User: Fold BET1 homolog from Pipistrellus kuhlii.
Amino acid sequence: MRRAGLGEGGPPGSYGNYGYANSGYSACEEENDRLTESLRHKVTAIKSLSIEIGHEVKTQNKLLAEMDSQFDSTTGFLGKTMEKLKILSRGSQTKLMCYMMLFSLFVFFVIYWIIKLR
Assistant:
């Protein structure tokens, strides 16, 4: 008959009188348990990291979508401004010259009036 704890047949991880493992099988089993636990921690870390990356990607995509809409509105605004400038450049130059002359006369009279009041 075999005694538990003094040789083979005891619970896994129990040691005999000399401090050695009962069998090579239990040593392998203990190492497998240790490696399994290590792997579990690594998988958990990778899972949490991938979840954080997913949240960051969603945030960045939202920011990019907002920037895209702002660029589209800016492009439309600049396009309208360019169209107005084209219309102004095609307009009659005589009208522009009349405005320039009226402005010059106005400035001349203002300066004349300021000098006269001195």
User: Anything to note?
Assistant: DSSP finds two helices and no strands in the chain. The helical segments are 24-90, 93-117. Residues 24-90 form the longest helix (67 residues). The two ends are 133 Å apart (CA to CA).
